[in-house]
Amino acid sequence: MKLARELERRLERLVEGVSGAIFRGRVHPVDLGTRMLREADLHVAEGPAGPTVPNEFHIGLNPEDLDLAGAPERLKSELEYTLHSTAAERGWRIEGPATVVISSDPGIKPKHLKILGQTSPGDQEPWGQLIGGGGRHANITHNRVLIGRADDCDITLPEPEVSRRHAIIHREEGRTWITDLSSANGTTVDGAVVSSTTPLRPGARLTVGPVSFMFRLVDQ
Predict the structure, then answer these.
(1) What is the CATH number of domain 128-217?
(2) What is the pLDDT of residues 169-185, one digit of tens each?
(3) How far is CA 15 from CA 25, 29, 73, 74, 90, in A?
(4) What is the rounded CA–CA span in Å between residue 191 and residue 207?
(5) Domain ranges (residues) in the chain
(6) Segment 147-173, tens digit of pLDDT
(7) How many CA atoms lie within 13 Å of 61's alpha carbon, on the beta-carbon side?
(8) Within 13 Å, how many C-alpha atoms sit on residue 72's CB side?
(9) pLDDT tens digits, residue range 80-92?
(10) What's the CATH fold of domain 2-118?
(11) DSSP string, 50-80
């Protein structure tokens, strides 16, 4: 709820700061953000690392609702921030950068929106790192990261004692968590066996099978 109120206030301030009538009283930026997130929620899919949603949304509006000639780039940026922040807060994985495209379509009725979400894989900035010995380290870029021996894992550890799909690191509700996927040789955090979803704090020592790392956030 706290995040939802913050995002709504950001979009409200966007309208207050715009010079000229971009939105003509029919569709409000808060409506765009709310509908986009509702669409994301409706398209949550269960992937190998957990719940995944589209990272790219195309929003169509009737020309009466939006004057594209005056639409600021800031609107697009705020909606992308809304998607990115909500995905991190809810523990949704997105496969690429949060992207929003807004277009005018006379075929859409006034006061109506057309929203299409799709997955467009791409590079994302790391938010965390696993620092190991011997120069071994891995960036954490997705909200949910699969660790294991298999080639399709986000972080691949080619060790026989590491299970094919060993563990998942994810962030949700402002915290980072680690879950062991019933691996053969287990996962520990600061020496404690991970038997259920466990908080992973900056500076913690994470051991995946025989491989040890120190977890850090990139801004710390």
Answers:
(1) 2.60.200.20
(2) 999 999 999 999 999 99
(3) 11, 7, 13, 10, 26
(4) 8
(5) 2-118, 128-217
(6) 999 999 999 999 999 999 999 999 999
(7) 24
(8) 17
(9) 999 999 999 999 9
(10) hypothetical protein PF0899 fold (3.30.2320)
(11) EEE--SEEEEEE-TTTB-GGG--HHHHHHHH
What confidence tens digit (pLDDT) does each residue in 9-66 have? 665 555 554 434 455 556 777 788 889 999 999 999 999 999 999 999 999 988 887 7
pLDDT the model gives residue 144:
98
Residue 108 has what pLDDT?
Answer: 92
| Residue pointed to by tokens 């990139």 | 218
**Would you say 37 and 55 are in contact if contact means Cβ atoms under 8 Å apart?**
no
Helix (H, G, I), strand (E, B) or coil at 88: helix
Two tokens at 202?
């900056």
In the numeric block, the tokens 């997130």 are attached to: 37
Q: Which parts of the chain are beta strand (E)?
A: 45-47, 50-52, 56-61, 99-104, 113-118, 128-132, 137-140, 144-148, 155-156, 167-172, 175-180, 187-189, 192-193, 198-199, 205-208, 211-217
Positive or negative, the Cα torsion across 138, 192, 184, 94? negative
